[in-house]
Write a structure and sequence with these properties.
Elements: H1 2-8, H2 13-19, H3 22-29, H4 32-45, H5 48-53, H6 55-65, H7 69-73, E1 94-95, H8 103-118, H9 120-131, H10 143-155, E2 162-163, E3 197-198, E4 204-205, H11 208-222, H12 224-227, H13 235-242, H14 247-260, H15 262-276, H16 285-290, H17 293-302, H18 318-337, H19 348-360, H20 365-404, H21 413-448, H22 454-470, H23 472-475, H24 478-487, H25 493-507, H26 510-514, H27 517-529, H28 536-552, H29 559-563, H30 574-589, H31 604-620, H32 626-641, H33 644-652, H34 662-681, H35 697-714, H36 718-724, H37 729-737, H38 746-749, H39 753-769, H40 773-786, H41 794-821, H42 827-846, H43 855-868, H44 873-900, H45 906-926, H46 932-948, H47 970-983, H48 988-993, H49 1001-1023, H50 1033-1036, H51 1043-1060, H52 1062-1084, H53 1092-1106, H54 1116-1130, H55 1148-1152, H56 1161-1180, H57 1190-1199, H58 1219-1232, H59 1264-1268, H60 1272-1278, H61 1287-1295, H62 1300-1321, H63 1323-1334
Parallel strand pairs: 2-3
Antiparallel strand pairs: 1-4
Length: 1335
């Protein structure tokens, strides 16, 4: 073979002689391509004459080529030694000044030779390029581009970096050297990378040029590894991160580069995925060639920064969320743009899927998350491509069959063959795509859909829903649907939500739903149960899914399944209630057909809807929640609910509609009023939040139109409805609310005053017929809305109100005089007077009835009731209420005159204060009444009145009203406290006795609400300074026992009282403990200290001590005073000198020990000294034996200084860290884990666990001694660097005890040392202050 090559290229005898060299012969024997290149070069460069003239030179060249074969193999031999007729290029030389006409030829020869050094494959490509017959990829091209293609073959493989120095003679060829990658800058401009080897020219350079080349060569050697990285590796990542380029343009540019060189393009895509994982490592071309995927992932894992669990897909900032969307778009666009060629090249997809499969199996969460997302988006793109190919194949098949069906004369054989070949191509493409999809599904999805990370599971299920929905022919099978069904039982709500959303897309299509019968029967029970899911959004989507099943699959949901969904229309969550309302509407309420709105015939569809709605409402047993039902159905049945003509027609129909019972009429009226409210206000009922911030202009316009329409329809009909149902309380109350939703101006603008007079007349009729509080309050609110001065009809309504109040006042005066004159009150007179007073009291709350002077008659009645007790409670309670509102209206007049007119006279102020004092005196007398309802009403009115006329009355620019401030006497405060204890904190036994009676459950709830109102009224008196703060002890001592009923109220009172006066607040807490201990000792004696009751008192003390945890310096004086007063009380002598009990209050010291941990160390020392002083005094008084009680020992131990380990020798000389450094360490430790972990606790494994650290041991903890001896320098030295570490370093750091746990422990200890130093520096000042506190 060698001889043939010699003969073919006509080698001269001198070359043949040189070829006889054994070393050269041995090297060329295994490199025929190298010989071929050298022959080509020899043929073009040396003529036979030249060879004959200088045979030794040629032979020398061939001999030099084979001197060091290993160096040539490694591509490290000098460049100049390989060129004929040139001297060897040294590191400091610079070559420039090429002879004219030889630069192109010289460059092509050198490039061809460097391509030989790469290996047989590259040399073959370069030989073809240098020979001038073909391109490097096999296509023909001109001789000059041949050189460029040959350079590409040698340079892009990472063997050589070529550049042109500015200003050199070789700069004319710079345009030929910018082909490395489209858009890449020249090497001397590209991110500081310098040139290692100059363009190989003949003429050497001297002077400064040689020095520059020598310096750049050194820099090139230092950056050798960096040059191996692809120059465009970060383009994709940076384009997505910055968001300045369109995704399609970025993908198109990458595809162009991939088509030019698929290895470099694929390497760029790999590094894009690696950077998207947050990894600092880079995959080089050498790694891609020589390492397996698992080895590459292993090295990348070691490059991870395990100090942080964050990576791009886990960040939630706007920039990274935009990156996440762009990442998904890139994977989808890549498949879409490459669906006609690159997808089927058997390189990109196969290599990419293999790499993603390996990354998805990594222990690093970032790798698994990112690779799974990329693979699932890739799979979705392939599914769309497969669907397109399938449709094209089916179309080709139909065309072939149509052509085949033609007659022989009309049939075109060429077209048949073309269609057949086209169908065969589509079939091959479809098989290739199915293989790719199968690889992703079995290699990634099957393992990741049950990953530990919920986000990864959500991605898998979400994308599977897309596959099934788009390509149902292949994926709508039980083999794929089972994964969605299994994931319905996932523990994470987000994953369950993704399953439901995926299933909604399937059940929305009726054809798909019909093919899912087996799946539906298997998982129907689970889907129905998810309507009660603990996650609100999951429950909402579950109900929507069931609605789709109900709509597209008949007879699948049974009656029992539906009945479990119906009650959700009363749920407090509006989205869930709306979804259930839509389900209810489509199942039961949707009319089959109806007449148009303008037809005169009855709307049977609307009537049928209302009948079904009322039937459901009555059966649901939630008869007081019509507003919730209407709100749930509003989004899907608003036109039917706003058909007020049908609603009022059914109510006014005579005789009543067939089948309408009395309860159904009540339900229909509540539905009518609820629909009016919903149409005019657009807000959900109380207790159901809508989540909407504001109404749109269109919604406001719709509301205005609905309000106008219902007002025009109901103004003439409302008096008729009130007249028909005026005797029924349940029906008349909602009808009385209706005018509040009217456009009341329409009475005057529409000239409908006659209907207003009818409405007012019906109001008086209803008020005269009823004494029920709810009816009277509703009528008073409606009349107050009509009595607005801005309406033109105000005078008419006001005159009607005056006439009605005149009638009530005259009746009251007559009946009150009759009651006061008779010795024994007749039942009829008492009942009539009570009814009249109820009406007056209710209307007095909404209207100013001061001109009728109702206060004096009411006060006479109350005095008569207190003196004789002959007035029944039905009269006393409304009389107190009426007097109360009379005082408030008079105060309102005086307050208004103070702000807008002349100040009230002193006579007026004193007269009002006398009325207040007399009324409070009467209410105080009623606190001891025999009837509990009278007592409760007196307490409520007293607490409100004392609060209104309290010290804050003269604040806020009302200095003129200072004379009206009423101070409650101590006897009144004591009575209020006693009433509170008797009526609020003494119901536990009664509640336990009646707990088993289910019928009284509503009554118990109502009573609890009443007791909470009483307690809140008393607590407001404490907070606003009406009563002394010490009176709060009767409330605070029940904090622990009644925490479930009143805990929120008492806790808020504790916090507010602390802000008023901390010292007095602490004294009140101590007073509460003293009272409870004294009561225990009185009941059980000294033996009660060991009972469970004493443990309850101690638990209360512990709860009180927690209130001193914050703001220790602000609470310091109050806490010290609490201990001091407690010590005095504990060693207090008995009241009776002859008592033999001794110091019975010593157990209080055990309660004080619960407060000791909140003390500062100097305070503890001084209190301990004070305790010893008091103990010595008690010892001198003859109480020696009693000082051995356990309570004294417990308290003394709580004040003793704790034994603390001393610092390491020399550590005292170390300075504290600055505040900035301290915050920085805390921030870093918070990123690693919880900085508040106690010393010695075991930490969990970090989220980022490398595959290289699979076998690592749990994090080790330093012994206590070593942790205490750790110093700041050791902590700084052992902190992990910002760069990534290898697994060996991480494992070694754990063995040394410098892992995460030990670092956190040392950090905590350092913080403790800082606190100790701060306390030591300020110790003297604290001791001085403590001495002052102790007096």
């Amino acid at each position: 073979m060698l001889l043939l090559l010699l003969l073919q290229h006509r080698l001269p005898a001198a070359a043949a002689a040189a070829f006889s060299n054994p070393a050269l012969s041995q090297w060329l024997r295994f490199r025929p391509a190298a010989l071929q290149v050298m022959c080509v070069r020899h043929e073009r460069m040396h003529t036979p004459a030249t060879v004959r003239e200088s045979p030794g030179k040629c032979g020398k060249h061939w001999s030099n080529l084979a001197q060091e074969p290993p160096a040539v193999e490694a591509a490290t031999c000098p460049v100049g030694s390989l060129l004929p007729g040139t001297q060897e290029l040294q590191p400091g030389d610079e070559l420039s000044g090429t002879p004219r006409g030889s630069s192109h030829r010289q460059t092509s020869y050198g490039v061809a030779l460097f391509s030989v050094l790469k290996g047989p494959g590259a040399s073959k490509m370069a030989v073809a390029a240098a020979a001038g017959g073909q391109r490097a990829d096999g296509s023909a091209r001109s001789p000059r581009p041949r050189v460029k293609e040959g350079l590409r073959a040698g340079l892009l493989l990472g063997e050589l970096s070529v550049g042109v120095q500015p200003g050199s003679a070789g700069e004319e060829n710079a345009s030929n050297l910018t082909f490395l990658r489209k858009g890449t800058q020249a090497p001397h401009q590209h991110r500081g990378r310098r040139v290692a080897v100059a363009l190989l020219l003949r003429k050497p350079a001297l002077g400064q040029g040689a020095k520059r080349l020598r310096r750049e060569a050194r820099q090139g050697r230092d950056a050798q590894e960096e040059e191996e990285e692809p120059r465009g590796a970060g383009n994709l990542f940076e384009a997505l991160r910055l968001g300045k380029s369109a995704t399609e343009s970025v993908v198109d540019e990458w595809l162009e580069s991939y088509k030019e060189d698929r290895e470099l393009g694929f390497l760029e895509l790999i590094n894009f995925l690696v950077q998207s994982c947050g990894c600092r490592g880079v995959v080089t071309h050498g790694m891609l060639k020589s390492l397996q995927n698992s080895q590459i992932i292993q090295q990348l894992t070691e490059s991870f920064d395990e100090d942080s669990a964050e990576y791009p897909l886990s960040l939630s900032t706007p920039a990274w969320r935009r990156f996440q969307r762009g990442f998904c778009e890139v994977m989808a666009t890549l498949v879409h743009h490459a669906q006609y060629d690159v997808v089927y090249d058997e390189y990109l997809m196969d290599s990419l899927i293999a790499l993603l499969t390996g990354m998805s199996d990594s222990q690093v969460r970032a790798f698994r998350h990112t690779s799974t997302l990329a693979a699932m988006k890739l799979m979705t793109g392939l599914v769309r491509v497969a669907l397109s190919v399938s449709l094209q194949k089916d179309n080709s098949q139909r065309q072939y069959e149509a052509e085949q069906a033609k007659g022989l004369n009309r049939r075109a054989p060429e077209k048949l063959e073309g269609l057949l070949e086209q169908r065969r191509e589509f079939q091959e493409k479809q098989e290739e795509l199915e293989n790719l999809m199968n690889a992703i599904f079995k290699g990634i999805f099957v393992h990741r859909y049950r990953d530990l990370v919920p986000e990864i599971r959500s991605i898998c299920i979400e994308e599977m829903g897309q596959w099934i929905q788009h390509y149902s022919a292949s994926f709508l099978t039980d083999g794929y649907l089972k994964y969605v069904g299994w994931t319905l039982h996932d523990k994470q709500g987000e994953v369950r939500l993704r399953c439901l959303l995926a299933l909604q897309g399937l059940y929305r299509n009726q054809e798909m739903a019909s093919r899912m019968e087996l799946f539906t029967s298997r998982f129907k029970e689970r889907m129905v149960s998810m309507a009660l899911d603990k996650e609100p959004q999951v429950a909402v989507e579950a109900v929507r899914l069931l609605t789709l099943i109900l709509q597209n699959m008949e007879d699948v949901l049974t009656d029992s399944d539906c009945e479990s969904i119906f009650p959700l229309v009363y749920a407090s969550s509006r989205p869930l209630a709306v979804a259930a309302g839509e389900f209810l509407y489509k199942k039961l309420l949707a009319p089959e057909g109806g007449c148009a709105r303008g037809d005169e015939e009855p709307r049977e569809g609307a009537r049928a809807f209302l009948r079904q709605l009322l039937s459901f409402f009555m059966e649901s047993e939630f008869h007081d929640h019509a507003a919730y039902l209407v709100d749930s159905l509003w989004d899907c049945a608003a036109p039917l609910l706003k058909d007020w003509q049908v609603l009022t027609g059914l109510l006014l129909e005579e005789p009543p509609a067939a089948g309408f019972s009395d309860q159904q009429e009540s339900a229909l009226i509540m539905t009518l009023v609820a629909s009016m409210r919903q149409a005019t206000e657009g807000q959900p009922p109380v207790g159901r939040a809508s989540g909407k911030k504001a109404l749109t202009a269109r919604e406001r316009k719709t509301q205005a139109e609905d309000r106008l329409r219902l007002t025009q329809h109901l103004i003439p009909l409302l008096p008729q409805l009130l007249a028909k149902f005026s005797t029924d309380v349940e029906k008349v109350v909602p009808l009385l609310e209706a005018p509040c939703y009217f456009d009341l101006k329409l009475y005057s603008t529409g000239r409908l005053e006659k209907y207003l007079e009818l409405l007012v007349a019906q109001l008086w009729t209803v008020v005269e017929k009823h004494t029920d509080k709810e009816v009277l309050e509703t009528a008073a609110r409606t009349l107050s809305a009509l009595c607005c001065p801005e309406f033109a009809f105000f005078s008419r309504v006001d005159s009607a109100l005056s006439r009605f109040v005149d009638h009530l006042a005259d009746k009251f005066q007559h009946e009150a005089a009759e009651l006061l004159q008779s010795s024994l009150a007749e039942e009829e007179v008492a009942y009539s007077l009570a009814a009249t007073l109820r009406r007056i009291a209710v209307f007095h709350s909404a209207h100013d009835l001061t001109p009728w002077c109702l206060f004096e008659p009411c006060i006479h009645l109350l005095r008569h009731a207190v003196d004789t007790g002959e007035v029944p409670k039905q009269v006393v309670i409304p009389a107190m209420t009426c007097s109360h509102f009379s005082l408030l209206w008079e105060l309102a007049h005086l307050s208004n005159s103070t702000s807008s007119g002349p100040h009230p006279s002193q006579v007026q102020l004193l007269g009002l204060k006398e009325k207040v004092a007399s009324f409070c005196s009467l209410c105080q007398s009623c606190l001891v009444d025999d009837d509990s309802s009278v007592q409760e009403q007196a307490f409520v009115l007293l607490s409100d009145l004392l609060l209104i006329f309290g010290p804050q009355l003269a604040r806020g620019g009302r200095k003129a009203l200072e004379a009206l401030v009423y101070q409650a006497e101590s006897t009144l405060q004591s009575q209020l406290s006693g009433f509170l204890v008797d009526h609020v904190f003494s119901h536990a036994e009664a509640s336990e006795m009646g707990a088993g009676d289910l019928k009284d459950e509503e009554l118990q709830i109502e009573q609890l609400h009443q007791r909470r109102s009483i307690l809140a009224g008393f607590c407001k008196l404490i907070v606003y300074g009406v009563v002394e703060l010490s009176a709060a002890s009767d409330v605070f001592k029940h904090y622990a026992k009644f925490y479930s009923d009143y805990g929120d109220i008492i806790k808020e009172t504790l916090n507010r009282a602390r802000q008023i006066d901390r010292t007095e607040w602490a004294h009140t807490l101590l007073l509460s403990l003293q009272q409870m201990l004294t009561q225990l000792l009185l009941e059980q004696g000294p033996a009660g200290v060991g009972s469970s009751a004493f443990l309850e008192i101690r638990d209360l003390a512990r709860r009180f001590s927690l209130l001193f945890g914050l703001h220790r310096l602000q609470n310091r004086s109050a806490l010290v005073q609490l201990h001091r007063d407690g010590i005095k009380f504990a060693f207090q002598e008995p009241a009776s000198p002859s008592s033999k009990l001794g110091l019975v209050n010593l157990p209080l010291l055990e309660l004080l020990s619960e407060f000791s941990p909140r003390l500062l160390h100097p305070d503890k020392a001084l209190l301990l000294s004070y305790l010893k002083t008091v103990m010595s005094q008690a010892h001198a008084a003859g109480h020696r034996g009693e000082l051995c009680w356990a309570s004294v020992a417990v308290y003394q131990h709580s004040l003793s200084p704790q034994v603390e380990a001393g610092p390491e020798p020399g550590s005292a000389a170390k300075k504290r860290l600055g505040s900035a450094a301290k915050r920085r360490r805390l921030d870093e430790s918070s990123e690693l884990g919880s900085s508040s972990l106690p010393s010695g606790s075991r930490l969990q494994t970090p989220l980022l666990t490398s595959t290289a650290l699979k076998g690592k041991q749990p994090l080790l903890m330093l012994p206590v001694g070593s942790r205490e001896s750790s110093s700041e320098s050791a902590l700084v030295q052992r902190q992990p660097p910002l760069t990534s570490q290898h697994s060996h370093d991480a494992r070694q750091s754990q063995q040394d005890g410098s892992g995460l746990g030990s670092r956190l422990d040392r950090l905590i200890l350092m913080e403790d040392e800082e606190e100790v130093e701060e306390q030591e520096t300020s110790g003297e000042e604290e001791e001085v202050e403590a001495v002052k506190l102790l007096g």
